[in-house]
């Protein structure tokens, strides 16, 4: 069921509400929805045909990407995952060959090693980026975790931006957003993918 949070709700309130809501969903329901999202992405041309897929490494109650990453790698696909540069407040992506290459980094997230080379902007052409978020709206606006890392990266990212969300993370009303917020092009849920363009 879509949310009724409106534009008058500030981002902090939205973050708190959607984090609680997401964590309240039973694990079995989350697993079923996430498996459906994975299947849908496998048949969605922007992600299924991209020469390189950039994906966050899920943690907690986020839409699970670990099985997706492992499946892509098993099929010989190229995968990049993010590494946070806390001092510069920026996000870079590094290509990996397996999840076993990752270790706890900034904010306790699994990341590539500090000496792993980051993918250049030219290498990102034609790729697809799977974007996390606590809540999305029909225009592709999202409320994330408040660090701004993804918005800074997506501001220059040349490929397709695909938000991953369970249906309960879709707001029926427009979300508050600022000039620096970058909308996704598509949102993939357990019921399908829709365009936000």
Automatic annotation (TrEMBL):
<feature type="binding site">
    <location>
        <begin position="11"/>
        <end position="15"/>
    </location>
    <ligand>
        <name>ATP</name>
    </ligand>
</feature>
<dbReference type="InterPro" id="IPR037171">
    <property type="entry name" value="NagB/RpiA_transferase-like"/>
</dbReference>
<feature type="binding site">
    <location>
        <begin position="142"/>
        <end position="150"/>
    </location>
    <ligand>
        <name>ATP</name>
    </ligand>
</feature>
<keyword id="KW-0460">Magnesium</keyword>
<feature type="binding site">
    <location>
        <position position="62"/>
    </location>
    <ligand>
        <name>substrate</name>
    </ligand>
</feature>
<dbReference type="InterPro" id="IPR002698">
    <property type="entry name" value="FTHF_cligase"/>
</dbReference>
<comment type="similarity">
    <text>Belongs to the 5-formyltetrahydrofolate cyclo-ligase family.</text>
</comment>
<dbReference type="GO" id="GO:0030272">
    <property type="term" value="F:5-formyltetrahydrofolate cyclo-ligase activity"/>
</dbReference>
<keyword id="KW-0479">Metal-binding</keyword>
<dbReference type="GO" id="GO:0005524">
    <property type="term" value="F:ATP binding"/>
</dbReference>
<keyword id="KW-0436">Ligase</keyword>
<dbReference type="Pfam" id="PF01812">
    <property type="entry name" value="5-FTHF_cyc-lig"/>
</dbReference>
<protein>
    <recommendedName>
        <fullName>5-formyltetrahydrofolate cyclo-ligase</fullName>
        <ecNumber>6.3.3.2</ecNumber>
    </recommendedName>
</protein>
<dbReference type="InterPro" id="IPR024185">
    <property type="entry name" value="FTHF_cligase-like_sf"/>
</dbReference>
<dbReference type="GO" id="GO:0035999">
    <property type="term" value="P:tetrahydrofolate interconversion"/>
</dbReference>
<feature type="binding site">
    <location>
        <position position="57"/>
    </location>
    <ligand>
        <name>substrate</name>
    </ligand>
</feature>
<dbReference type="GO" id="GO:0009396">
    <property type="term" value="P:folic acid-containing compound biosynthetic process"/>
</dbReference>
<dbReference type="GO" id="GO:0046872">
    <property type="term" value="F:metal ion binding"/>
</dbReference>
<keyword id="KW-0547">Nucleotide-binding</keyword>
<keyword id="KW-0067">ATP-binding</keyword>
């Amino acid at each position: 069921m879509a949310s009724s949070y409106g534009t008058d709700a500030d981002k902090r309130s939205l973050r708190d509400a959607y984090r609680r809501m997401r964590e309240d969903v039973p694990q079995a329901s989350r697993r079923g929805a996430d498996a459906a999202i994975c299947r849908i992405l496998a048949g969605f041309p922007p992600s299924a045909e991209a020469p390189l897929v950039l994906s966050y490494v899920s943690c907690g109650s986020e839409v699970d990407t670990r099985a997706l990453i492992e499946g892509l790698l098993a099929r010989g696909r190229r995968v990049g995952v993010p590494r946070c540069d806390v001092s510069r407040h920026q996000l870079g992506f590094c290509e990996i060959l397996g999840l076993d290459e990752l270790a706890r980094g900034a904010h306790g997230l699994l990341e590539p090693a500090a000496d792993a080379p980051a993918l250049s902007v030219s290498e990102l052409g034609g790729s697809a980026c799977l974007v996390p978020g606590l809540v999305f709206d029909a225009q592709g606006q999202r409320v994330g975790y408040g660090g701004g890392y993804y918005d800074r990266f997506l501001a220059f990212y040349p490929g397709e931006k695909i938000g991953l969300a369970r249906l309960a993370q879709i707001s029926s009303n427009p979300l508050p957003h600022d000039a620096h917020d970058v909308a996704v092009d598509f949102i993939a849920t357990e019921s399908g993918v829709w365009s936000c363009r």
